[in-house]
Every structure is written in structure tokens, then in C-alpha cells.
């Protein structure tokens, strides 16, 4: 636990350094590792303080909570409400926590599943539908938008995997 | 969403002091057109706002010409709308038709107000109130002529391809999708050599699933590492200490565990909080 706090401090100092060195230009395409790491470490430490590990939760439940925290912090690091998938992820997480979070609605929501089912002459409708199910919020996206969001989602996911791998390596006792 | 912000700031800086057409007109709209429809809509919004404020400024300065000109633009705008709607309809794809039209409308308005303002700022020195509404509209039309081609995506049908608007739109949509698909292929390692939309999509799905599974695995690992690091001593302390003194809580914990096994984690949060609070106090 103390180690996590040290890590948080380290990351936040690193973040301020990078902010100082870089200009005001914010590149939204590159997923921000440091932001994700800070968010995730903070939520981890929150979990450990809220839920000390002698609590009755099963390990499965705790692992699920950690996973949820990882996804939420990834969505936050990806720019909160700027991306459709991150909006969907945050909205889902908020719904699970019974909080009501409202983003400004952009468009009338259309479920594209129906229309793509109707278009059965295309070669890969099932694959697109499966992709829709995988990418959060994909059910309401139009196909080209879905591809765009998928690209960003994949980038963020790989970033997340890398950071989590680093964390596991760092936290595990030698 | 960078360019609109930049534009806004630059406008607010530029508006009060010096109001010249060449500074304001060319770059933001070009940017917007280049960087896609959504941007274009936003830029249009920003632009309209700033334009309105700009026109107000000008109108405070020279009232007579401005009133004449506004009458002029009104007529022009409606004419333009009628003439250009067809072209935008021709190409607007079924998916992004609304956006296209919106941006088209916005930009058309923009063009109108733009050129009108340009006249305002250029006129007063030379032929102030001589031309009136008619002159203003003519000048704006002349200025408008080179601009409209940027409003829509130009699609050409090759020989043997259908030319009605639906197939054109569908073709534009498919091109857009395949473009995005190639971008996706570049991201995923080892996906460049695969040919065929279905296979590529399968590969993408597999990759995402593997990443998600990896995240799950890593979170389990993290949980184990974390609990092993922090709760090593407390597990030793807990059972010997306070089991007897807190029978209710133990019952509750057992109940909770059963519930967790049954419902897989959909139990209310507050129960956990309460139990945890009690444990915190005791240990």
C-alpha cells in the first residue's frame, strides 16, 4: 500500500515534468500512459483502503473490481467524454454504481444492429455485429465511426495492458 | 477538436482591434473542410457566433450601409439554399447525410454573412451608400462562386457504375469504411497481410478479445500481488483476535459470501461498506 502511494507520487511528479516540458498542445490521439497510471493507482489505493483485504469478499469479486477500475481509468485517460467508447464505458460504470451521470447528448441514438441485420447481402455482417458488441457503446455507432472508435480503443487497450504489466512486475515481490 | 478552439481565441483577439477580411476568412474554414465533417460543423458554429459579434461591431460603426446590406443578404441566402441543396443531396450519403447538410447550411450562411461583412469593411471608404442592397448581393455572389465546391464530397461514377444518388452515397460510404479499415489494419500487428474484409474483422475481434482477456488476467494477478503484499500479517491476526466478540458480523459475512457466490457481484455496496467499517474498527 505504501508502495502504491510512492508510485502515485512518482507518476504525478513525472506527469508534471512532462506537462512542463511539452507545450499546451494536447494530442488526443496518443493515449496518455501517465494519466491512466495515476488514475488506476489512485483507484487501487482507494480499493485497498475501502476494502481491506481481510474483508469477506472473494478474490474473484476483488479481481472484478480491479478490472472495473482499470477500465474506468482507461476511459478517463482517453479523454472522458470526447470519445464515444469512453463515454459508454463511464456511463456503464456509473450505472453499475447507481449514480446518474449525464453527458451532453450529441445525436439521436439509433441502434445500428437492426439496420445491419436487414442488410444481409453484405459479406461480413456478423463480424461487424460482434465488433459492435466488443467495443463499448458500439451498438449506437455508424460503421465507419465504429472503425474509428475501434482503432482508438485498441490503442488504449494495448497501452493499458502494458502499464498493468509494468505494475504487476513492479509490485510483485522478488 | 483543436482547430475550433484556436479559431475562437484568434477571433476574439482579432475582432475588437482590426477587422479585416483576409485575416478571418480563409484559414479556419479551409481547415474545417480539410479535417472532416464533424469539425466543419463545430467550426461553423464557432464561426457563426464570432461572425455575429463581428457584424454587430461593424453595424455600430456604419449603420446605414449595414442595414441595406442585410436586406441584400437575406435574399441571396435563400437563393443559394435553393440552388445548392440539390448538389448536397446528390452526394450526401445515407449515413452522414444530416451532418453534410448541416455543415452545408452552416457554411452557406457563413458565406453570406462573411461576404456581406467583407463588403461592409471594404466599402465605407469608396462608394459608401451608393450601391445599396443590389450591389452588395452581386459582390457577395462573385465572391461566393469559388467557394461552394468545398461543401460536398465529389464522387464520380466510373463506366458501368450506377449514377443515381443512392448508389453514389453508398459507394462513398463504403470507401469511407474501407479507408478506416486499412487504418485499423495498420494498428494491429500482423494484420497487413490478410486479405478480405471478413478475415480482417475476425482478426480485429480476436485481437480485442485477447487484449481484454489479458486485462482480466492482469487484474487477477494484481489482486493477488496486492493482497499478498498488504494482507500477509493481518490474516494472521484476524482469526485469533476478534471472532468471538463479533458474532453478528461474522454471520453477516457468511451471508454475504453466499450471496456473492449466488449472484456474482451484484450485491449492494453499502453492506460491504458497513462490514468493512466494523472490521476496520476492530483490527
UniProtKB/TrEMBL annotation, chain A:
Molecular function per GO: protein dimerization activity; transcription cis-regulatory region binding
GO cellular component: nucleus
InterPro entries: bHLH_AtIBH1-like, HLH_DNA-bd_sf, IBH1-like, IBH1_N
Subcellular localization, as worded in the UniProt entry: Nucleus
Keyword Cytoplasm: no
SUPFAM superfamilies referenced in this protein's UniProt entry, alphabetically: HLH, helix-loop-helix DNA-binding domain
GO biological process, one term: regulation of DNA-templated transcription
Pfam families tied to this protein: IBH1_N (PF26576)
Residue ranges occupied by any IBH1-like N-terminal domain in the UniProt entry: 36-95
Bilayer-crossing regions: none
PANTHER family for this protein: TRANSCRIPTION FACTOR IBH1, TRANSCRIPTION FACTOR IBH1-LIKE 1
Protein name: IBH1-like N-terminal domain-containing protein
Organism the protein comes from: Capsella rubella
Lineage: Eukaryota, Viridiplantae, Streptophyta, Embryophyta, Tracheophyta
UniProtKB/TrEMBL annotation, chain B:
GO cellular component entries: nucleus
Domain BHLH: 161-211
Subcellular location(s) of the protein: Nucleus
UniProt KW DNA-binding keyword: yes
Composition-biased stretches (Basic and acidic residues): 77-88, 140-152
Stored SMART domains: HLH (SM00353)
Swiss-Prot/TrEMBL keywords: DNA-binding, Nucleus, Transcription, Transcription regulation
Region feature Disordered, mapped onto this chain: 71-152
GO MF term set: DNA binding; DNA-binding transcription factor activity; protein dimerization activity
Name of the protein in its database record: BHLH domain-containing protein
